[in-house]
Design goal:
about 450 residues; alpha/beta; 6-stranded parallel β-sheet; 5-stranded antiparallel β-sheet; 12 helices; binds zinc ion
């Protein structure tokens, strides 16, 4: 799968790089050739939204386990979020601590997002110079006290600095007001928190819509690169289309769970499906697919967000506790090992070609993260990050397929299409699945993309 499309070809690798893409007749007899038969060879996937939680919460995940899961899922580059680790990545010192923690553990390559929180606006340019790929902020309480939502006044102080770096600001785009009001209403009426309908009603579309409208205003005033993470509501699409027409520098991601699941099908108590913003209706899901196809949504990211199973409250963790309550369960769906087959299953059902999917999960995320000179395409000069993808094989997802620290997933038991047979990182095979017998590289050789940026005036 090259940027020009799909064809029979030989990809020539020297050391860590792709040096040429040729037809078989052009390859000399001395070249060592591995024939992949009918498998598709696609560029390694790039995930711009990964929570690895290290240092500080390695009992949740970690560089070693998370990047193994990534390799098995066809991802060769992941970009780690600045929260749920300790300390949070909100200054250069914390960035260096994370680098230290990651060293020698990663099975695939990575980059690191910095965080924008109340009062750290003077840390942002130093973070950019030190090699952070960009910045993440929340507009609503993220669930952990160490990294809080930024308020409007502090956001106004932060964005001029971010604009100077030329790096993107990734925003969790929900505002607290509509959520607080909905929760108060639900509690006053004695709502059942084991019901998914209650959880969905507690995170209304308006929370996303008000946040995105506010962000587009800020983007218009300060011309920073705005990236809306994990868009869930299709009601925001007209606003985003208008912003694009106006020429605002805005990009948008959505996630596999919003493209695969539907609120109507989520059983009560099934907190493995809890994430924020929430999975909405089947009709909403179809509009998200349309928006990917028409380019309103640029890319797909996993939002791989793991936690210890007990935090999902699937069973009572103490006497008298009610299991399966959506208000008490941790929000987040781990998906590094499942994203590609989940998405390919949906693409096949909609006759969407593989080339489109590769754009959404590899080339477009590489571009958003500023890495497209190195990753996201099978072309001469690029890192030889490759995935042999068996597009016809189907399998029933079991915990053994997951590879991250805690093998839980809402998709266990589902029949999915598409199997990652091999993943190569910079020319070396790091994962192989031969009819179910799985091997990983002995030595983790993933390294960081730390691209120091220069500031504009
Ligand atoms: Zn996230």
């Amino acid at each position: 799968m090259t940027p020009e499309g799909e064809r029979d070809a030989v990809v020539l690798i020297e050391g860590e790089h792709i040096v040429a893409v040729k037809s078989a007749s052009e390859v000399s007899g001395e070249t060592h050739v591995e024939d992949l038969g009918e498998f598709a060879l696609i560029p390694g996937l790039v995930d711009v939204h990964t929570h690895l939680n290290e240092p500080g919460r390695t009992e949740w995940e970690g560089f070693a386990t998370g990047t193994r899961a990534a390799a098995a899922g066809g991802f060769t580059t992941v970009i780690d979020m600045p929260l749920n680790c300790l300390p949070e990545t909100t200054n250069v010192e914390a960035l260096e601590l994370k680098r230290e923690a990651a060293r020698g553990k990663a099975m695939v390559d990575y980059a690191l997002w910095g965080g924008a929180v109340d009062g750290n606006q003077h840390e942002l340019e130093p973070l950019a110079i030190a090699g952070a790929a960009g910045f993440k902020c929340f507009l609503i309480y993220p669930g952990c006290d160490g990294f809080r939502e930024i308020d409007r006044a502090n956001l106004e102080l932060a964005v001029p600095h971010i604009a100077r770096t030329g790096l993107p600001l990734l925003v969790h785009s929900e505002l607290g007001g509509p959520v607080d009001a909905a929760v108060a209403r639900l509690n006053a009426s004695g709502a059942d928190w084991r019901s998914y309908a209650t959880y969905l009603a507690s995170r209304p579309d308006e929370a996303e819509l008000e946040a995105i409208a506010m962000l587009l205003d800020l983007c218009r005033a300060h011309r920073f690169r705005l990236h809306i993470v994990h868009l869930s509501t299709a009601k925001a699409l007209p606003m985003i289309r208008a912003a694009r027409k106006e020429g605002l520098p805005v990009t948008v991601e959505t996630c596999p769970h919003y493209l695969h699941c539907a609120a109507e099908k989520i059983p009560d108590g099934a907190t493995l499906f809890k994430c924020a913003p929430p999975i909405r209706s089947a009709e909403n899901r179809e509009q998200l697919w349309q928006a990917l196809l028409d380019g309103t949504i640029d890319l797909i990211a996993t939002d791989h967000s793991p936690c210890p199973p007990a935090m999902k409250r699937l069973s009572a963790t103490s006497p008298g506790e009610e299991a399966g309550r959506f208000d008490e369960a941790w929000g987040g769906i781990p998906s590094l090992s499942t994203a590609l087959p989940v998405l390919w299953t949906e693409c096949v059902a909609r006759t969407i070609p593989l080339a489109k999917l590769v754009g959404w999960v590899s080339s477009k995320p590489a571009k958003m993260a500023g890495l497209s000179a190195h990753v996201g395409a099978i072309a001469p000069g690029m890192h030889a990050n490759l995935v042999a993808f068996d597009i016809n094989a189907t399998f029933t997802l079991a915990p053994a397929h997951l590879h991250y620290r805690h093998p839980i997933s809402p998709y266990v038991g589902e029949t999915l299409r598409g199997v990652v047979r091999s993943t190569w990182l910079r020319g070396e095979r790091v994962y192989e699945n031969q009819n179910g017998a799985v091997t990983f590289a002995d030595t983790p050789r993933g390294r960081e993309y730390a691209l120091s940026c220069s500031l504009s005036r």
